[in-house]
Amino acid sequence: MALQLQLVSSSFSLSSPNSRLTLAGVRSLRSIFAGKCFLRGPSRSCDVLSSRRLLKTTTFCVNVEEGEKKVLEAEREEWGKVSAVLFDMDGVLCNSEEPSRRAAVDVFAEMGVDVTVEDFVPFMGTGEANFLGGVASAKGVKGFDVNVAKKRFFEIYLEKYAKPNSGIGFPGALELITQCKDKGLKVAVASSADRIKVDANLAAAGLPPEMFDAIVSADAFEKLKPAPDIFIAASKTLNVPSSECVVIEDALAGLQAAKAANMRCIVVTTTLSEETLSTAGPSLIRKDIGNITLDDIVSGGSSPNSM
């Protein structure tokens, strides 16, 4: 007996070689049987390892045999339970991406270099050294000293944008963290920002550092996101396997780091568009942290993939 699911979507794509199908507005499905995914109505067959883009259609049916259904369920279960949530800071807990870019523009203005906030977008989520240094390199700034620039950046940022309790926290952040803790989940901040900025942002957002089981920042790492080092260190600090961690991110670098660490990742569209983020295969996409539910987290991002 075949199980038929009627799914409606304008498009869908493969997000990884093990074939997570991310569909706008419907539940994600996974298929690993024989390396094939069979689509019915119109009739199509495609090798999931050979193409990351399948088709565009208005309505289609997925025909899954009962035995194949069990494979889908088993593949989902291989992740294991969710025991910890790793929160990125800028763009997730704190509405600080735009202020960070404005502070960086001020730094370059003091050097007599004309830049815009958009120049920094490709380097978001990669740490202040890359954030500032990447733009300096792109603009051909001579004699750029990243350490001097970072020092000035923090001075401007803390003075103008991250004063204690200044309200840069996203609505719903405190509530979601509290719900996770009440559920018995461990929670951590895992950020590519330096600790001085992490502490300032948490204070500005009204999020007490002691509410987190761990705070992992860029200071101790040579490789920042998209490398997985920060997330792996956070999972070890929490004593939780990577497979039981769910990451919440806003940047492509963070999403890539989470996947490299073998962690599920829920992304928010506070910084980048849903279309841009979906190309990297997140587990789930939400508008912002206030739209993420405890069920989204406990299910590992397997809730309907819709904002």
TrEMBL record:
Protein's name according to its UniProt entry? Uncharacterized protein
* Matching InterPro entries: Beta-PGM-like, HAD-like_sf, HAD-SF_hydro_IA, HAD_2, HAD_sf, PGP-like_dom2
- GO function term, MF aspect, one: catalytic activity
Q: Name one Pfam family in it.
A: HAD_2
Does the record carry Transcription regulation as a key word? Answer: no
- The entry's keywords: Carbohydrate metabolism, Magnesium, Metal-binding
Q: Which cofactor does it need?
A: Mg(2+)
Q: Which domain of life is it from?
A: Eukaryota
Keyword Nucleotide-binding in the entry? The reply is no
CDD domains to which the protein is assigned, alphabetical: HAD_BPGM-like
Q: Which SUPFAM superfamilies match?
A: HAD-like
